[in-house]
Write a structure and sequence with these properties.
Layout: H1 3-11, H2 22-30, E1 35-38, H3 47-55, E2 59-63, H4 67-79, E3 84-87, H5 93-104, E4 110-113, H6 115-118, H7 121-129, E5 132-137, H8 159-163, E6 169-173, H9 178-187, E7 194-197, E8 205-211, H10 215-223, E9 230-234, H11 238-250, E10 255-258, H12 264-276, E11 281-284, E12 297-302, H13 309-316, E13 326-332, H14 334-345, H15 351-369, H16 374-381, H17 394-397, E14 402-404, H18 406-418, H19 425-432, H20 438-442, H21 459-471, E15 475-478, E16 484-487, H22 491-495, E17 502-504, H23 529-532, H24 537-557, H25 567-576, H26 581-584, H27 592-608
Parallel strand pairs: 1-6, 1-7, 2-4, 2-5, 3-4, 5-6, 8-13, 9-11, 9-12, 10-11, 12-13
Antiparallel strand pairs: 14-17, 15-16
Helix pairs in contact: 1-3, 2-3, 14-15, 15-21, 18-19, 19-21, 24-25
GO cellular component, one term: cytoplasm
Catalytic activity: Couples ATP hydrolysis with the unwinding of duplex DNA by translocating in the 3'-5' direction
GO molecular function, one term: hydrolase activity
């Protein structure tokens, strides 16, 4: 490792050593090599191009897909004393011209540009006239047409290699299965680039999947253990986002909404509040979140089923970027599967893409219904083996029971067939349980042979059976018949008694108000309670005082609090209680610029709380 890179790591970023493969990646790019980097969210991807940009001659040009992401990263770099800027549509013509002059004059270390702007003739000509240290393509999975964040402009970024073949390129993403990795390399002309693939595991995240019974109540029960925490709640539709946000506000939770149907000004304002304020819960569609740098998001909750494992992984990865404990909670039901299948099959995509998306949805459904370690299944999707028994998911903490579901499955499949494969699970369950509803009477289903043969199971247990039959590929939803269930070819061996099945047992309903993180004790108000629970009383008092100072300082500068200092840095300060600037400079995360800017204020606050 070159001494300039280590010196910058310590002087600018306040760290004494690289993590994982950062050192190899940084040196490879400094030496002029191309790289494809897969590293989980929170793993330190940004340093892999920021430090080479500071070491190499010229300005590092970063292709970034979202305006909010650019602005946050530039604000954070400026706090570190790095000469960073962005070119996007929020700038006035005068400000954009000024930044272009700074680039040409060699007065910038890093410049962030959206792919759409980069591809304009004006920007390409600007790059021709500037000294560029490297090209960094962030969120590189956006190049994949099979991915969850496809951006067609990313496919045109091959121009970087074609027009400037001698400038090194580094493409980075936190989410890419094997086919997506191959497509990134192919579409960006990075087949010969060195690949650096870190573990996809996020050991600090606790994965939990629950079956939807009363989704609103279940969400409130989950959030009871996260009072005062920052978090994200993902919902399927714009209407659902607004409804859930209103319900959370009514329950006394500081919640905001975010979806693409809102005015741009409202979306931007809500995102800013989420980034800058503590304890905000953002209820959003997947339009929100790519590249969110907020490190202290303590939970990501899905109140509807995502479309794929990649999307689920990417979205849950926005929790716990600081490495502290965080929750990934998913609540789903069979209705979610029907809605998503309908969305896919009625979409405008070609048949091949539809087949791929349906397979991905089926894989996610299988993950949800699995009885094995969540981590093993999740990482296995990305080609990474895991032994299981992670100790930090619902299936490991509370191993699910299973039962011989062969007879129940034959009853369910027979009833679907006897009712004409024309109805959803709700009506079929009524028939199985012998419920004489208006609909059952209207269709004469009290007279068929399967009426009442399933009275030994309650509606909740039958819902679980049907979910698992869909997950196992024995039943599928007929979208043309509004989600009616129909048998697949795999149902035949079960009906003929040639195949047996075991089902996951349906757990009892949790008590009203029961928290989802019983063992963590992170509720009760403070956003950092989980991380700070083991601090001594004096250190905790110092930590809280420092957080208040940080919040005030961030508001004065109109920047997110975490760009001042991360919670982990404040914790270290509170624990060590440094007496002078020299001691303070040894705290991880405090580089020369932050020491000069905030050192005296921090020491004064420590003195005031002795």
């Amino acid at each position: 490792m070159s001494s300039p890179a280590l010196e910058i790591l310590h002087r600018v970023f306040g760290h004494t050593a690289f993590r994982g493969e950062q050192a190899q990646i940084v040196q490879h790019v400094i030496d002029g090599g191309d790289a494809l980097v897969l590293m989980p969210t929170g793993g330190g991807k940004s340093l892999c191009y920021q430090i080479p940009s500071l070491v190499r001659e010229g300005c590092g040009l970063v292709v970034s897909p979202l305006i909010a992401l650019m602005q946050d990263q530039v604000e954070a770099l400026r706090q570190l004393g790095v000469r960073a800027a962005y070119l996007n549509s929020t700038l006035s013509a005068d400000d954009a011209a000024r930044i272009e002059r700074e680039l040409l004059a060699g007065e910038l270390d890093l410049l962030y540009v959206a792919p759409e702007r980069l591809l304009t003739a004006r920007c390409l000509n600007l790059i021709d006239r500037a000294k560029i240290a490297l090209f960094a393509i962030d969120e590189a999975h956006c190049v994949s047409q099979w991915g969850h964040d496809f951006r067609p402009e990313y496919r045109e970024l091959t121009i970087l290699h074609e027009r400037w073949p001698d400038i090194p390129r580094i493409a980075l993403t936190a989410t890419a299965d094997a086919p997506t990795q191959r497509e990134i390399a192919e579409r960006l002309n990075l087949e010969d680039a060195q690949r650096f693939v870190s573990s996809f595991d996020r050991p600090n995240l606790r994965y939990r999947v629950v079956h939807k019974d009363n989704g609103n109540r279940q969400l409130l029960d989950f959030l009871a253990s996260h009072r005062g925490d920052s978090g994200i709640v993902y919902a399927f539709s714009r209407r659902r986002v607004e409804t859930v946000a209103e319900q959370l506000v009514a329950a006394g939770i500081h919640a905001l909404a975010y979806h693409a149907g809102m005015p741009a000004e409202s979306r931007a304002a809500n995102q800013r509040r989420f980034l800058q304020e503590d304890g905000v819960v953002m209820v959003a569609t997947i339009a929100f979140g790519m590249g969110i740098d907020k490190p202290d998001v303590r939970f990501v909750a899905h109140v509807d089923l995502p479309k794929s494992i990649e999307g689920y992984y990417q979205e849950t990865g926005r929790a716990g970027r600081d490495g502290e404990p965080a929750d990934a909670w998913l609540c789903y039901g069979l209705g979610d599967v029907v809605s998503l299948r309908q969305l896919i099959q009625q979409g405008e995509a070609g048949e091949e893409r539809k087949r791929v998306e349906l397979r991905k949805l089926d894989s996610l459904l299988g993950y949800c219904e699995s009885t094995e370690c969540r981590r093993k299944g999740l990482l296995g999707w990305f080609g990474e083996p895991h032994p299981g028994e992670c100790g930090n998911c619902d299936n490991c903490l509370e191993p699910p029971q299973s039962w011989d579901g062969t007879t129940a499955a034959r009853k369910a499949l027979s009833c679907v067939y006897r009712t004409g494969q024309r109805f959803g699970a709700g009506h079929v369950i009524d028939v199985l349980r012998g419920q004489t509803t208006e609909k059952v009477s209207r269709f004469g289903h009290e007279d068929i042979s399967t009426f009442g043969i399933g009275a030994d199971l309650d509606a909740r247990q039958w819902s679980s059976v049907f979910r698992q039959l869909v997950a196992g590929g024995l039943l599928e939803a007929d979208i043309e018949r509004h989600g009616a269930l129909r048998l697949t070819a795999d149902a035949g061996p079960v009906l003929r008694g040639e195949r047996s099945l075991r089902f996951r047992s349906e757990t009892a309903k949790p008590a009203r108000g029961a928290g989802a993180r019983k063992s963590r004790g992170s509720g009760g108000g403070a956003a950092a309670a989980a991380a700070m629970a083991d601090l001594e009383p004096e250190a905790l008092s110092r930590f809280n005082a420092l957080r208040e100072w940080r919040s005030t300082t961030a508001r004065e500068q109109n920047v997110p609090a975490y760009v001042i200092f991360h919670d982990s840095t404040l914790r270290a300060i509170a624990e060590q209680a440094p007496d002078d600037l020299d001691d303070l400079s040894r705290i991880p995360g405090i580089g020369a610029s932050k020491l000069d800017r905030y050192g005296e204020a921090v020491l004064q606050h420590l003195l005031d709380h002795e």
